[in-house]
Amino acid sequence: MQIFIFNLLKPKQGIFVSQPLFVRQDENDYHIYLPWLAAPIATMSGWATVFYCAIFSYEMLERRFTKLKTINPILIGLLIGCIATFRDLNVDPVSTNIALWTWHELLPGWFFNVPLINFSAWMCAVSVYGMTYTYIQRREWPENVKIIALFAAIPVLLIVSAVLNFGFVGLVEGFDGPSWTARALGRS
Fold this sequence. Notes:
The protein is mostly helical. The chain has one domain (2-172).
């Protein structure tokens, strides 16, 4: 649930949206939207699925390689982020090229027509959440306290992942590059 809420509130970097309606038609089909969010509910559910699968995959690795339990949560978060990003390296190019979604025209294709900011957003968002999840899971707290802690951390995680993502993209593309320009246009 925390993953779904995190993804519900996460900024949508570069996905093209035309109008704020509950159900609207784009060039391919009808999609269900919440009026204040840029991406369809199905897309956000997919994001939550990727987050969950990346964390679950790490937990399977940790069961097999118990020494991972002694590694710093920051490194574990980066590993979880890599798992999710590697998965997205397979899915997004196909989805983009069969027109399941369209990227903002200012964003140049970096990997099979998918812009860099997409992959950096996955890495930053999942790594930050993975670090926090790992840190909290390793505490000897009651399970309900862990759940509350993860929910309470969501606003901070959103800010940290956005700062990391746009900082990284700014360093790579320049702070006046296409991702920053598309973001500025999205606000006007």
